[in-house]
Amino acid sequence: MNIRTDILLRVYIAFGLIVLLAFAVLFKLFHVQISEGKKWRAMADSLSTKYVNVEAVRGNIYSVDGSLLATSIPEYELRMDMLAGGIEKNEVFYEKVDSLAEKMARFFGDKSRREYSSMLRQARKDGERWFLIKRNISHQELIEIKKFPIFNLGRYRGGLIVVQKNKRILPFKSLAARTIGYWNENVQPVGLEGAYGDFINGESGRQLMRRIAGGTWAPVNKDIEIAPKDGADIISTIDINMQDVAQNALLKQLIKSDADHGCVLLMEVSTGEIRAIANYTRTGEGEYKEKFNYAIAGNQDPGSTFKVASYMALLEDNLVDTNTLVETGTYKIPGHLIKDSHGSIGVVTVKKAFEESSNAAIAKLVNTAYKDNQSKFTDHLYDWHLNEKLGLQIPGEASPVIKNPEYKSWNKKMTLPQMAYGYEMQLTPLKMLTFYNAIANDGKYVAPIFVKEVKRLGTSIEKFQARVINDKICSDATLNKIQAMLEGVITEGTGKGIIYNPLYKVAGKTGTAQVADANKGYRVKRQYQASFCGYFPADNPKYSLIVVVNGPKKGYYAAQVAGPPFREIADKIYANDLEMYIPVQQRFVGNTKMPSSKAGYNKATQKVYKSLGIKTFFASNSELINTIDTNNGVAVKEVKLYPNAVPDVTGMGLKDAVFLLGNAGLKPVVKGSGKVVKQSLEPGSRLVKGHPISIELK
C-alpha cells in the first residue's frame, strides 16, 4: 500500500468516526427532547419555580367572659425591588437614596446613615429584586416606614415589598399560659393550641415562587395564587378574673411555704367547665414558673382527700353509719403501724373520725369490712370509673392507677388498709376534684371540659357539653351523709378556723400525704403533699376547688398549707359572684316617685329612662328638655334656645350648662356641684359675648 492510499484510508476512518459521533449526539438530543422531554422540563421548572405554603392567620382563643387569651398579630419582613418602576431611572434613585438612608438610620437606630446608603447603593448596583431590608416589623412601624422617601412612591413604583408573618401572643402573658399551650408541627402539642390546632390553624394558601440571583426565592406575582383561610376561634371555659385570683393565691402560698410545686383547679359544679387552672414549678429562690401541668398529668398518692371514697363505699354497703363508733390513734397491720399524725382522739363516731382525718380509723374500718372480700371495695372504685382517664379536651392526661386483687403488687395484708386512706394508688388532682364535684352535683359525675365552643367569623361550628360519666355515683342517703361529713370538716374538724367563713358554707376535706422520692421510697427523704378539695357554697354548690402544694419546707399539714389559698380563692369568687348571694326580696311601694333627671338632651334622657325600664312619653320634640314632675310618670318641659339671647341652663348638669354657655359666647363662673339652680343673667335677655355669667349648682 502506497503512502497516498494509506493517508486516504486514515482520513476516511477519521471522518467516519466524526460522522458516527455526530449521529450519536443528534440521537441523544432527539431522545432527551422527545422521549425524556417531559421529565427534564418538569425538573427545570422545579429548579426555577415552586409553590410554597402561605401561613393562614391562626384563630383566637377567648375566655368564657370574652377576654382574649391568645391571638395572632401581624409582623412584617421588608424587602426591596431595586429596579422597581418608580426608581428605574438612576437619577430618581440616587437623588433620594441618601434621604431614605437618613430616615432608616434614625428609625431603626442599628446602622448609620452612611452604612444604610452604602448598603442600598450596592444592592442597586447588583440589581437586587428581593433585597432584605428588615425583619420583625410591627404594623405601626410599617405605617411610618411607608412614608419614607422612595417607599412613598407606592406599592409597585417605590420597590417596597412587604411580606406578612404572624406572631402568636398572649395578652395576659402568664395567665393560664400552660392551659392555652402552644402548637408546633415539630413537637408534641400542648394545651388548647395543640388540641384544637386543626380548627385554629386554618388552611394554608399557596404562592408561586421563582429562584433569582443568589439562590433567593421571590414571588412570581404580587398577589397570592391561592389565598389562605383564617383559623377558627376557640371559646374556652376559663374565666380570666378567676384565673388571676387562683394564680396569685397559689403563688403566694408556694413562696410562703417554700414548696417545690403546686396546682389549683376551679370547676363549675353543674356544667363541669374549668374556670381556672394554675400550675407552678420552683425555678429558683422564691421564683416559680409554669413548666408542667401537674393538675392533669401529676399522678400521685392523693392521701386523705381519698377517704371520702372509702367512707362512701362503707356507707353504700351499710357496713357503717355516721354514728358508728371507731377507735383512733393507731392501727397495726403486718409490717406497718398506721398512726394518726395528730395523735389519738379516743373512740369517736365515724363522722368525727372523718372530720379529724383519722388514718387509723378508716384503715381499720375498711380492712375489717372487706378483708374477706377485698375486691368488693375496689369494685366500687371501678364502678365510679376512678381507674379510667377522663378523656379531656387537652393532651397530657395521666392514666390513673387503682389496684385490685388481680395486680401482682397487691398485698393481701397491707394494700387494702393503705388504699383506705389514699396510698398505693395514683390519681391526678383533676381526677380527685371531679369526684368531689360529683358529690356537690347530687351524685352526677361529669367529665370536665376546657372548651365551650368553636366559632368561625362569629358563626358557631361546634359546641361542647360535659360528658356524663355516671348519672348517680351512690344513693341519696349515702350522698346526704357524705355531704354532711364534708361540711363538718370545716365547722368541727381540720378545716375549722382556717377555711370556715361565716358568710357562706364550705364543704371539703384536707389531705396530708407523704410522697415517695422517685425509686428511693418514702424513708430516704421525707416529702409531703398538702391538699384541700371541696366545694362552695355547700348549701347550693356552684364551684368545686382543689389546691395541691407539693414539697413544702415550712409546714406540711394540709389545713395550714393548702387551706389559706383555698379560702382566699373561695372568698374572692364569692364576693364577686352576685348569683351566690341570698337574693334580696324586692318590694314596691304605691305612688313611688320616678327618678328625676337633669335638664339635657331629649334623646339621651329618653335612653336613660328606657335603660331603667321606665316607660316615658315626651310630647316635646325639642332638642333640649327639663324634667319638671316625676310623681306620676315623667313630665318634661321644652328648653328653647333663642339667637343672641342668654340660654336657660336651669336644671342642667355642669357639663351641658358650660357647653351651652360657652357656645353662646359667655364666660361661666361656677359655684357648687349638682345641677344648676340659679344663673346670674336672666334667660332670654340680650346676649353680650364675652360677658361673665355666674351659675350656682346644688
UniProtKB/TrEMBL annotation:
<keyword id="KW-0645">Protease</keyword>
<dbReference type="InterPro" id="IPR050515">
    <property type="entry name" value="Beta-lactam/transpept"/>
</dbReference>
<dbReference type="GO" id="GO:0071555">
    <property type="term" value="P:cell wall organization"/>
</dbReference>
<dbReference type="GO" id="GO:0005886">
    <property type="term" value="C:plasma membrane"/>
</dbReference>
<keyword id="KW-0472">Membrane</keyword>
<feature type="domain" description="PASTA">
    <location>
        <begin position="642"/>
        <end position="698"/>
    </location>
</feature>
<dbReference type="InterPro" id="IPR036138">
    <property type="entry name" value="PBP_dimer_sf"/>
</dbReference>
<dbReference type="GO" id="GO:0004180">
    <property type="term" value="F:carboxypeptidase activity"/>
</dbReference>
<dbReference type="InterPro" id="IPR012338">
    <property type="entry name" value="Beta-lactam/transpept-like"/>
</dbReference>
<dbReference type="GO" id="GO:0008658">
    <property type="term" value="F:penicillin binding"/>
</dbReference>
<keyword id="KW-0812">Transmembrane</keyword>
<protein>
    <submittedName>
        <fullName>Transpeptidase family protein</fullName>
    </submittedName>
</protein>
<dbReference type="InterPro" id="IPR005543">
    <property type="entry name" value="PASTA_dom"/>
</dbReference>
<dbReference type="Pfam" id="PF00905">
    <property type="entry name" value="Transpeptidase"/>
</dbReference>
<dbReference type="Pfam" id="PF03717">
    <property type="entry name" value="PBP_dimer"/>
</dbReference>
<keyword id="KW-0121">Carboxypeptidase</keyword>
<keyword id="KW-1133">Transmembrane helix</keyword>
<dbReference type="Pfam" id="PF03793">
    <property type="entry name" value="PASTA"/>
</dbReference>
<feature type="transmembrane region" description="Helical">
    <location>
        <begin position="7"/>
        <end position="30"/>
    </location>
</feature>
<keyword id="KW-0378">Hydrolase</keyword>
<dbReference type="InterPro" id="IPR005311">
    <property type="entry name" value="PBP_dimer"/>
</dbReference>
<dbReference type="InterPro" id="IPR001460">
    <property type="entry name" value="PCN-bd_Tpept"/>
</dbReference>
